[in-house]
Design a protein that fits this description.
Blueprint (H helix, E strand, L loop, with lengths): L1 H13 L9 H12 L3 H12 L5 H8 L7 H11 L3 H5 L8
Length: 97
């Protein structure tokens, strides 16, 4: 039991550092603009796709690089734009919109 609880603490503590692709904000903005949506409309679409509450303020922070979206949100961006998620998070790949 002790080994399991130690592993759980380790996994919990691992979540503090978050990888941020350098081009993430640029790509999220590119997706929204390609879809022709306002930040408010994008928030609504992503909330429906991800099942998570999201606001236009969140969208603004993502697009300015002030915040990194949770993976569920990145997946929702990928689904909305009909692209692979790795196209969004891999700085070496271009979006095929």
């Amino acid at each position: 039991m002790w080994v399991f609880s130690s592993a759980l603490v380790f996994l919990t503590n691992m979540g503090h550092a978050r990888f941020r692709p350098e081009r993430l904000a640029e790509k999220l903005l590119q997706i929204r603009e390609e879809l022709g949506l306002s930040q408010k409309e994008m928030a609504k679409r992503l909330a429906e796709l991800a099942g998570i509450k999201i606001t236009d303020k969140n969208i603004s922070k993502y697009e300015r690089g002030r915040s990194v979206p949770f993976i569920e949100i990145v997946l929702a961006y990928a689904r909305a734009a009909n692209v692979e998620m790795n196209e969004i998070v891999d700085d070496d790949l271009e979006l095929n919109l």
